[in-house]
Amino acid sequence: MSDAALPLKTNDLATRRDDRRVRGESVAVQILLIGLSLAFLLLFLLLPLITVFVEAGARGWEAYKAAIFEPDAVAAIRLTLLVAAVAVPFNIVVGIAAAWAIAKFEFRGKNLLISLIDLPFSVSPVISGLVFVLLFGAQGYFGAWLKAHDVQIIFALPGLILATVFVTFPFVARELIPHMQSLGSADEEAALTLGASPWRTFFSITLPNVKWSLFYGVLLCNARAMGEFGAVAVVSGKIRGLTNTMPLHVEILYNEYMGAAAFAVASLLAGLALVTLALKTLLEWRFGDAIAASRRH
Amino acid sequence: MTHPLFRRLLRAGLVLGAFSLCFGVVAGARAQTELLNVSYDPTRELYRDINAAFIAEWNAKNAKKITTIRQSHGGSGAQARTVIDGLNADVLTLALAGDIDAVAERSKKLPLDWQKRLPNNSSPYTSTIVFLVRKGNPKAIKDWGDLVKPGVQIITPNPKTSGGARWNYLAAWAYAEKAFNKDDAKIRDYIGKLLANVPVLDTGARGATTTFTQRGIGDVFLSWENEAFLALKEFGADKFDIVVPSLSILAEPPVAVVDGNVDAKGTRAEAQAYLDFLYTPKAQAIIAKNFYRPRHPENADPKDIANFPKVELVTIDGAFGGWAKAQPTHFGDGGTFDQLYKPAR
Amino acid sequence: MAATAPFRWREPSVLPGFGLALGLTLTALSLVVLIPLAALFLKAASAGPADIWAIMTSPRTLAALRLSFLGALFAASINAIFGLILAWVLVRYEFPGRRLIDAAVDLPFALPTAVAGIALAAIYAPNGWVGSLLAPFDIRIAYTPLGVMVALIFIGLPFVVRTVQPVLEELQDDVEEAAALLGASRLRTIFTVILPPVLPALLTGFVLAFARAVGEYGSVIFIAGNVPMVSEIAPLLIVIKLEQFDYAGAAVVATLMLLISFALILSVNLIQARARRRFGDV
Question: Is the CB of residue A169 less than 8 Å away from at least one CB of chain C?
């Protein structure tokens, strides 16, 4: 599937694409299908997005500003950034390590390992929070020990970070593995043979080779980390100003009859989503070949 | 070979990550006197006012200042659960005694007789259950009996997670006991029909209010009196009417200091003073202004007191033998709610 | 390959760092994912077989699981149909705004679920933009199982488009052309020449959308109405059990969901492996 892996076929394909056009549907069918797609997207994707911004602005600019700069909102924004600032780098390091082991070496149990790394994708966010309550809650398996040592995990920053790391665990590895696999190990082998140190080889050969798919994975990982709701809702305790992340703050405002304020904070998150999409699209246009391998999620 | 921009990005990311880690640790260590009040859904507005007043008063008199009183809100049962799971609440201000009982039993962080420690069953304010209907009362709902008429849609939260919903349920039960002369079969039939008219069961009182007021679902909303008044204030008196039934229940939302937590944090004096403050004239006036019935109405603005309609109220102890009995009978696994709740579709 | 080689745990390689990389991966995986999940199984098992059976077969659990799985199945089916059409339109047709639309498809990946939830609830409530259009016909979407479907369709859409799109892009033209030249109707060409190689990708996208939808929480709870037995999804039931101090019950339902979901992911990998053998790279 990746063009990089199949250079000959790609050229083949390119020449053949020019003289196609025997196939194709009638214009009427095309318009019908395009119309159908647009209507579907409008109803399910664009309308919600528009709603967020319309409702956010419903009470005017001053109200919008007040909602964003309200101390609890500012605390929520800071907490969200903090959680992402810890969870994302952690997942970058682990993701790179996992991709290195899986893409560059052949070993038994590799497929199982890939499946296990993918596992958080298929775990309900609620369960991702629940497991940490079962482990670290006061009634949990480590609850008594934590209490004796005065360590607070659940309903505090560590719990939020753990839950976030859990749900975003696969993102970086998932993008890197196929790309590294398609590149093979020849570059690294050459560098090592020429006497480069392993770390130097890694930092000046491997990492630059996969930088754009790494960035791509980080982008998705970050979007999910900042937007996660279900998992952090279970471990947060919802102390406003302290353990409330932005998505939780949206829910709280929504439940306080402050719809406009809820949508104002939501519009920040929607803005983040748009920036993520824009960067992602830019990456795909400019470095399409490099990350084509990781197109699937 | 390495893209310089990329390298810079990577380095910036690492520095940022390290910085934020340190920042997180420092922020955690910077201990100040902060209280955490874990409360139920509709008290958000009440405690916003109470907290400001209490902090001003305490800081004027004491050298050790209170910087913030943090709030956490949710369904009363759900909130109790988070405290049992280790949320470091200094004080609990929940919807009903049964939920604080659960915290006392399971976390052992406060004594089982906590309710005797403050006046008035540890409830500095009370409320009751009223009906909120759409303007002009198009379905002509006057009393509990009208709720089971076919085609009436009732909004109430889920009694399993919401304290307010448990008061709703028991108020309906008390009405049925009186109306049907304690005929158990008829009471159950009535409650079953009532529940069959409920199209949405939110987890907390606030969610249910939103469903009724903002989403336009249902004909009648069984609501805390304070929440009904608040809805009138928020959305305009031209949208809804309050209907006071012939009989309702005296809802006593209790408050308690969580001994195990305040002793560990060294905040006992502040937490105790905070709860005592609720009984002072100043707080009682704030309470009435937020549509809760103060224990000392003489301290409140008579205009606020005049809002509260006269209604015959049964008590949880008188009609149901206290929460220790009512909770398992009606809301435990296999209790009357489980037996009678059978959605129509 | 490995199967014919004499038993060796791993193939030798000149590259360094295997131990470090694998060690780091396994440590992080164990600490963050495996041990917590083991705690979940342990908690579920602590309920004892009779209780586990009672929780699994209680009408409320069954209703919630039925809604989550059937709802996800329905949503994933809708997504498979429209996702295929969308991918087709994006790959084959030129029209203004195509690239913008292409980018917009990923919105559900990037938009936080809570934001999607309140936005969808606002639109499809009886007094919302779409809801008010349907209200005169007595069609209700928000706060009914239909609302659940809407949210699940929203979050699952990109999975199908993004798995099908690359396959459509790399489809060889010659067979299609040959079929057309030999006089096959367009419809027949689509069903006999184009669809078969796309099918594994479509199925993969379908299962991914399905798996995501089964576990979805944030976007659903705002729009579902959450009536037990009617519009209560399984993840919400887990939360409610947790809020009622029923840890074992929550763990049992969670474990059940998890096992089913994991079976699904395994089946995806199998589909992909088989497709790779049949059609080359997918």
Answer: yes
CA C230 vs CA B278, C65, C141: distances in Å: 42, 11, 13
A111–C119 C-beta distance less than 8 A = no
- Residue B54 belongs to domain spanning: 31-125+252-306
Inter-chain residue contact C282 with A97, CB threshold 8 Å? no
What pLDDT digit, counting tens, does each position of A208-233 carry? 989 888 998 999 999 999 999 999 99
Q: To probe the interface with B, which of C144, C227, C232, C247 has the most B CB atoms within 10 Å?
A: C227
- Please report the domains of chain A, with CATH numbers, ordered by start residue: 61-292 (1.10.3720.10)
CA of B23: which chain A residue's CA is closest?
A82
- Asked if residues B37 and B88 have their Cβ atoms less than 8 Å apart, the reply is no
Q: Which chains touch B (3 or more CB pairs under 8 A)?
A: A, C
Q: Which residues contact B152 (CB under 8 A, 6 or more apart)?
A: B139, B141, B146, B197, B219, B220
Q: Please tell me whether residue B133 adopts helix, strand or coil conformation.
A: strand
Asked if B24 and A86 count as a contact pair (C-beta separation under 8 A), the reply is yes
The rounded distance, in Å, linking the Cα atoms of C240 and B161 is: 7
pLDDT category, C279, cuts 50, 70, 90? Answer: low
Q: How far is Cα C3 from Cα C107, in angstroms, rounded to an integer?
A: 42
Report CA-CA distances (Å) from B329 to A108, B180, B184, C227: 57, 20, 14, 22
Q: B76-84 vs B97-107: helix axis angle to the nearest 10?
A: 10
Check if the beta carbon of residue C179 is closer than 8 Å to that of residue C192: yes
ipTM of the complex: 0.85
Q: Supply A8's token pair.
A: 């000959």
pTM confidence score: 0.83
Instruction: Give the bridge partners for B314, in sequence order.
Output: B249
Cβ contact, residue pair C245, B161, below 8 Å: no
For residue A16, count other CB atoms closer than 10 A to its CB.
13
With a pLDDT cut of 70, the percent of chain B lying above it is 90
1.10.3720.10, 1.20.1250.20, 3.40.630.30, 3.30.1950.10: CATH of C43-111+141-279: 1.10.3720.10
Question: Using CA atoms, how far apart are residues C126 and A127, in angstroms rounded to an integer?
Answer: 32
**Cross-chain CB nearest to B70 (options A241, A257, A259):** A241
